């Protein structure tokens, strides 16, 4: 067959439903429309868009379906020849006070919800994984966040690198995903987006598509 370059990267994407104070979550729209958007745009070579799921904005409510999709992706990988496919998880969440996109470097083993989640849970200084030790425990993504931020900035997007994903459901999901990725040889990334009132829907769709293309190139 000869040299065929690196194996394709499969990117699975999640967003969130509405929650307290955010009646329309832009990430639900982005993730729901992403497959059709990228088909029209033209899927970049070497990129396979996997599952696109919308999670409840609730710690326990999000984690159960998250693990189902994480595990199904691993099962698909195992059914193929060894290392024939690279897998990345991209989680989108909204920061209603943000004016730019934020690529999150890490998650912290702490659940301190500023308001009850959509299932009424409001933990305070609770470790997400008690087995991981203190709430100060940090897990970092293996994805080159700084390089991705620079590349997207050059493409004209207002984007920064962040080392604080908060302590609400976004951080909660990211910590679970990073832990799973480390244990299963995959990669995980969380991205915070502003409201559509701040950065319009079309620009955010363009950003999401550009992010996936950059990930397929750099990871």
TrEMBL record:
Belongs to the peptidase C15 family. It comes from the Eukaryota. Keywords: Cytoplasm, Hydrolase, Protease, Thiol protease. GO terms for biological process: proteolysis. It holds the Pfam family Peptidase_C15. The keyword Hydrolase applies. PANTHER family: PROTEASE FAMILY C15 PYROGLUTAMYL-PEPTIDASE I-RELATED, PYROGLUTAMYL-PEPTIDASE I. GO terms for molecular function: pyroglutamyl-peptidase activity. The lineage of its organism: Eukaryota, Viridiplantae, Streptophyta, Embryophyta, Tracheophyta. InterPro entries: Peptidase_C15, Peptidase_C15-like, Peptidase_C15-like_sf. GO terms for cellular component: cytosol. This is Pyroglutamyl-peptidase I.
């Amino acid at each position: 067959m000869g040299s065929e370059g690196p194996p394709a990267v499969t990117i699975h994407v999640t967003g969130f439903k509405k929650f307290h104070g955010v009646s329309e979550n832009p990430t639900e729209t982005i993730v729901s429309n992403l497959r059709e958007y990228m088909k029209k745009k033209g899927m970049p070579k070497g990129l396979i868009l996997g599952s696109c799921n919308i999670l409840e904005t609730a710690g326990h409510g999000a984690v159960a379906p998250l693990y189902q999709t994480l595990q199904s992706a691993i099962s698909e990988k195992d059914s193929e020849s060894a290392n024939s496919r690279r897998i990345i998880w991209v989680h989108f969440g909204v920061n209603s006070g943000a004016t730019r996109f934020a690529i999150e470097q890490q998650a912290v083993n702490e659940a301190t919800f500023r308001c009850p989640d959509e299932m009424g849970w409001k933990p305070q200084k609770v470790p997400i994984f008690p087995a991981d030790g203190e709430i100060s425990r940090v897990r970092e993504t293996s994805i080159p966040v700084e390089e991705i931020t620079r590349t997207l900035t050059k493409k004209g997007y207002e984007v920064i690198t962040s080392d604080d994903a908060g302590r609400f459901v976004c951080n909660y999901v990211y910590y679970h995903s990073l832990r799973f990725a480390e244990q299963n040889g995959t990669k995980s990334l969380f991205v915070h987006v502003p409201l559509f009132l701040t950065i319009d829907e079309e620009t955010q769709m363009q950003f999401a598509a550009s992010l996936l293309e950059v990930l397929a190139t750099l990871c």
